[in-house]
Each structure stands twice: as structure tokens, then as C-alpha cells.
Amino acid sequence: MQPVGVAAPLRVDIAEKTFRSAEGVPVTALHDLSFEVRQGEFASLLGPSGCGKTTTLRILLGLDTEFSGSFQLPQGGSNRIGAVFQEPTLLPWRTVEQNVRLALPKAMRNADLDRLFDSLGLAGMRSLFPSELSLGLARRAALARAFATEPAVLFLDEPFVSLDEPTAERLRHLLLSVWSARPTTALMVTHNLREALMLSDRIVVLSPRPAHVTGYFDVRLPRHNRSPQVMSDLLRSFHQKFPGAV
Ligand SMILES: Nc1ncnc2c1ncn2[C@@H]1O[C@H](COP(=O)(O)OP(=O)(O)OP(=O)(O)O)[C@@H](O)[C@H]1O
């Protein structure tokens, strides 16, 4: 048990998660999945398609309670959880600004969000409705909504998937700048190694299903030092440490 007031890490200790197919056949998605993300760290959960990444996030978000094991979420200034999914899940009949404010606890509803909208390039889009947004802009609005709540932990499920690469790259930089201004413990699911190396302090490498942790790859370099040359060195050392991982 962590003493009150001490920053607690994200601790995951899932013994097993098994689904049943429509025919009743058991499908074990997670088995002995244990890892830790230090408080304030940005971590990625990297693993092959279908290994159990989204299942893990759903458990941590409390959306799936049928598993054996336990986890502990970080305790920060707030106990709020932020989430960004592949689908931006904005309310269609509310503006961008209303979507963000509705996610806030009542006491924060009138918070000054100018800097947050500015830093995500949304200053001129606050009164638009989701149907008026491209997928890239909708993802930005979803990021704004997640950060506005000042969560103690932020979960992201492939937030840049199905965007064209220049848009995805711009969003990764926006995410980094908004996260650097409001650092919070973050766990991002991805199967994009380059993206994980660019954004993370720690990569949690998963096995094929049923997922367990193959190992950690820590990137102890300031993000502004991750030049193309450094990135290709990181890619090489990752592949040496985890041959065939992704
Ligand atoms: N509701 C469900 N019922 C039955 N099986 C499921 C269910 N949800 C997930 N699975 C199975 O559990 C396994 C893990 O799925 P999950 O979506 O967590 O993988 P993933 O690593 O996120 O995959 P991807 O990278 O392709 O998104 C898969 O074999 C999937 O078919």
C-alpha cells in the first residue's frame, strides 16, 4: 500500500483474461501480464496485432471487470482518468468547446481553456460541430477533452491510426507539446515502433497472444534530441534487443 501523498506508479498485474467465442471456445487474451509505469512517465504498450493491447486498456479503464488479477492506477492531484480512443467519440450535436467542457467536473466547467486549444491548433475551431471536422481535427478535439480534465493517468488507444502520415506526425508533435506542458502518467497502445520510440520514456514490449511482457525498452533521452539519426540508432538497438517483436 502506497502512503498517502506519495506519487504512485501505474501497476498492472493481470493473471488472466479469457474471452469465450460465440461457440463457447475459450480465447485467452492475457496471461501473467505484469508491468509498471512510473509516475509522470509516457509509456507505450507495443505488441503484434491481436495480442491483447486493447483488452488491457479496457480493463484499466474499468470497462471490463471479468479478469483475474489486479491493477493500481497512479494517484495524482486528481483521480481522473483521461482516454483517447481510435474513434474520437465526440457528441455530434455539441460544438468542439462544449464537448471538451462537458467532460470537466462541474467545478472546472468554466476553466480557461485558451492555452489548451491554442496548443492543439484548435483556437479557430471551438464553435465547430464534429461533422465539420476532418478525422485529424476530431482527434485533436479528443486530445483536448482528455487533457482538459487534468487526469492523473491518460490512456490512448492507437490515437494516430488511419491518418495520413504527415497528419499523424503533426499530431504526435502536438501531443508531445501538450503533454510536456501538462505531464501526466500516460499509457499508449500502438503497433507503430517508430511512434513508440519518438514519444515514450518506456516501451512495454508484449508477446503474441496471450500477452505477457517480453521486456522493457527505456528511452532515456530528451525528446528534442531524438533526431532522425538518433531514431535510426534507437530502431537498430530495439531490433537487436527484441528481434522479430513487431
Ligand atoms: N469481446 C471479445 N470476444 C471474444 N474475443 C475477443 C473479444 N475482444 C477481443 N477478443 C480477442 O482477444 C484477443 C486480443 O484482442 P485485442 O483487441 O485486445 O488485441 P490488440 O492487441 O488490441 O489487437 P490490434 O493491434 O489488432 O488492435 C484477440 O484474439 C481478439 O480476437
TrEMBL record:
Keyword annotations of the record: ATP-binding, Nucleotide-binding, Transport
ABC transporter domain mapped to chain residues: 10-233
UniProt key word Repeat: no
Matches recorded under Gene3D superfamilies: P-loop containing nucleotide triphosphate hydrolases (3.40.50.300)
The UniProt record lists the keyword Transport: yes
Record GO terms (molecular function): ATP binding; ATP hydrolysis activity
Domain of life according to the entry: Bacteria
Protein family (similarity comment): Belongs to the ABC transporter superfamily.
Protein name: ATP-binding cassette domain-containing protein
Provenance organism: Allomesorhizobium camelthorni
